[in-house]
Amino acid sequence: MMLSPEEGKIERYLGEFPGYRFLANSGNWFLVIDRESSLYIIDVFSKGTMTSLPSLESIRSSTSIVKRVGNTSFIRETSQGIFKDLSRDNVRGLLWVDESGKDYVVVWFFDLFGHSYISFCKKGDSHYTDIPLINRDFPWSYGFSEMVLRGYHLYLYTSRCYVRLLDLSGREGFRDITEGRPFPMLSCHVSCDSSIAVTTSGEVLLVESDPCNRSFFRIYKKDTSLVDPDAIAHTVLEVDSLGGEALLLDLGFTVPANHALGIEPDSIYFTRHFRPCQCRDRDLDICVYNLATKTIKRFQFGDMKIMDARWFFPVN
């Protein structure tokens, strides 16, 4: 269903999708996984438009092998050992589809603590390419706690709060195009729920919310005046504006404000409180936070039992 939050009603019924779990969205397109653990890209406004993706075990990697165990379970064999308990239920992903609907990038991973790989494919690929998250020569690159896919660029917020930038556009593999040593994005509020977002100009922001009361958000940018950010425990500067843009936190990037579409400037659109590797439920909290007034608006939909929700703006 497409719901109008301001009016609290169904704006358009998009049909039934039995057996599918929705993982990510990009415009009208959604990344879904079915009961047999197969991934597809679906245009929700044209249900017959569906793109099949490679099977989850079709991975090109020099360091690991993924094997299917039944319809919903998998194992990954690596030089460090065997990861078990990998299943359809803990697959998460990201999706980008260009405006023409012809090119796409899919990123997915098993959301399990300690699992050290993510995988991606582009249009025309018959397999996924692994991105290892462990590099003994660069310990700051270990793991991730959030990631943003914007076009062919994948932004990784590592477990140690550094930001890596990967280019997925090449014919084979990927390139780490992080400029120099990654910058640590650290605020003094260590107890907050943190994630990253990317502006239309490509600037990376740190986003914090209160995981308990859920009554505020804070936005930070890099403090570029720091000579040695690795020696500082607080490396960011708080900002009270998004420059007139709006942040779709579910997608991890900003978009131009558009009053005709109801996209308010300097506002954060948000639906959930869980991040990768936290092993938490979806914990829906559909809201808009205004940075200028420091106020939050939550949306209720009567007696409707909503299992999951995502902000998205349909493409004409």
TrEMBL record:
<protein>
    <recommendedName>
        <fullName>KIB1-4 beta-propeller domain-containing protein</fullName>
    </recommendedName>
</protein>
<dbReference type="InterPro" id="IPR005174">
    <property type="entry name" value="KIB1-4_b-propeller"/>
</dbReference>
<feature type="domain" description="KIB1-4 beta-propeller">
    <location>
        <begin position="6"/>
        <end position="290"/>
    </location>
</feature>
<dbReference type="InterPro" id="IPR050942">
    <property type="entry name" value="F-box_BR-signaling"/>
</dbReference>
<dbReference type="Pfam" id="PF03478">
    <property type="entry name" value="Beta-prop_KIB1-4"/>
</dbReference>
